[in-house]
Amino acid sequence: MLEGLPPNNAAHRLTLTTDERRARAVADLIVESFEPAEAAASAFETEDVWPGGGKAWLVEAYFGFEPDEDELRALIAAAADEETAQAAAFGLTEKKDWVANALAGLAPVRAGRFLVHGSHDRAKVGVSDIGIEIEAGLAFGTGHHGTTRGCLMHFDRLLKRRRPRAVLDVGCGAGVLAIAAARVLKRQVRLGDLDPVAVTVANDNARLNGVGEFCKAIVSRGVENRALRDAGPYDVVFANILAKPLRLLASSLAAVTARDGDAIVSGLLLADVPGVLAAWRAQGFFLAERIDLEGWASLRLRRR
């Protein structure tokens, strides 16, 4: 679900410029404090110099509701300090189609054999490429973010060693990962998202890519929907979400992962890796491979 974009219909925005330590702490605490469907936050290095040395960092947070500014400033003060909290700026965003906005002017993205592209770049798909066309729509997952690309790279490498039979995509967003699996395997792929809009867009994208018969997204928080649990165990489980839900869902996702199966997880900053790894190791997984892209980590975890 994560693509570094706001939640659907997000109208409220918070911005804050500070140093790296405070920026990471603030963004992490916002993510920990809200549901993924309610808010999204990220911290990025800028080209500006921060007083005292180092680069300035920008925190951006988007909310699908009007946040209480005093409560958010108190949250920021807890993560950093009062001066940083008072520097936060609040405002409204223009309601727009975030995926269409993200795709505009973006070149196709390659991840191994996979090439994720918009309709404007359809002609750039080579004969040996596995093209994934993403239609503009109100959902995350254009494939241009390092998290989705990292997951696709893991999957492409895994396919060179074995062909999984059962695949699950949790927090599917626009359906990029599930579509990639269905296009290669030519078989049913299970997928779900807690956001009904994302589910609709994922199904539209599956039909656009000729795999509508194999990909039928349903509304589900994790694997709470029984249809996803009953279709397991899975040889591959994708979970491109956020650090907090990756930790919280480790047990339920482990329960539907086959022995010697793989969980390909992403949506976590580099600093989040130890906590996520600890949660999954407690469920009998070990780190098989790690890919870091654009400040984000994607992990392939193998179940013992």
Secondary-structure blueprint:
Blueprint: E1 12-18, H1 20-33, E2 39-49, E3 55-63, H2 69-79, H3 82-87, E4 89-92, H4 98-103, E5 109-111, E6 114-117, E7 130-133, H5 146-159, E8 167-170, H6 176-185, E9 189-193, H7 196-208, E10 218-219, H8 226-230, E11 234-240, H9 243-248, H10 250-254, E12 257-269, H11 273-281, E13 285-293, E14 296-303
Parallel strand pairs: 6-7, 8-9, 8-11, 9-10, 11-12
Antiparallel strand pairs: 1-3, 1-4, 2-3, 5-6, 12-14, 13-14
Helix pairs in contact: 1-2, 5-6
Description:
This protein has a seven-stranded mixed beta sheet, sandwiched between helices. A four-stranded antiparallel beta sheet has the order 2-3-1-4. Strands 5-6-7 form a three-stranded mixed beta sheet. The protein folds into two domains: 12-92, Alpha-Beta Plaits (2-Layer Sandwich); 98-303, Rossmann fold (3-Layer(aba) Sandwich), CATH 3.40.50. The protein is an alpha/beta fold. Residues 1-7 have low confidence and may be disordered. 33% of the residues lie in helices and 30% in strands. A hairpin with a 5-residue loop joins β2 and β3. α1 (20-33) packs across α2 (69-79) and α5 runs parallel beside α6. One of its GO terms (cellular component) is ribosome. It catalyses: L-lysyl-[protein] + 3 S-adenosyl-L-methionine = N(6),N(6),N(6)-trimethyl-L-lysyl-[protein] + 3 S-adenosyl-L-homocysteine + 3 H(+). This is Ribosomal protein L11 methyltransferase.
